[in-house]
Amino acid sequence: MQQLNIRMLPRPTDGRATVDTTQLLKGVLDAAVLAVVRDEDGYGYDIVRRLRTAGLGEVGDASVYGTLRRLYAAGALSSYVVPSDDGPHRKYYAITPSGVESLGQQRAAWAEFAGAMTAVLGTDTTRQATTTTKGEKK
Known about the structure:
This protein has 138 residues and is an alpha+beta fold. The protein has a single domain, classed as Arc Repressor Mutant, subunit A, CATH 1.10.10. Helix content is 57%, strand content 13%. It has helices at 21-39, 44-53, 61-73, 97-121, 124-135; strands at 8-9, 18-19, 42-43, 77-82, 90-95. The strands form 2 sheets. It has a 3-stranded antiparallel beta sheet with strand order 3-5-4. A two-stranded antiparallel sheet has the order 1-2. Helix 1 (21-39) crosses helix 3 (61-73). The model is unreliable at 1-9 (pLDDT under 50).
């Protein structure tokens, strides 16, 4: 399992802590790109736009393009060129059977990891109940 490096940012003026989600994205970008392309083939910027629309607003163009090249080199994606009348030809990416298998493995790993993190972090209600129980004298 990949180690996450979560860096806390300075507290905003409203007192909430923030997390540098760019570090979180590094560990899951392959899975996110494969999932987006599994739904529909896409060219580079289209994939970036779909990831941002899905809630990954901080995903960088260069990170996605690098991920596309790496997944293509690994055989998880194939590519084809579509001519354009309005500009340069676009290179589209499609998921391969190897990519579908990899996505399935990454989904299972994510579910396990997310479950573990949920158990570790708990919810505010769970944490308050645990704190109260531990603070009580027996």
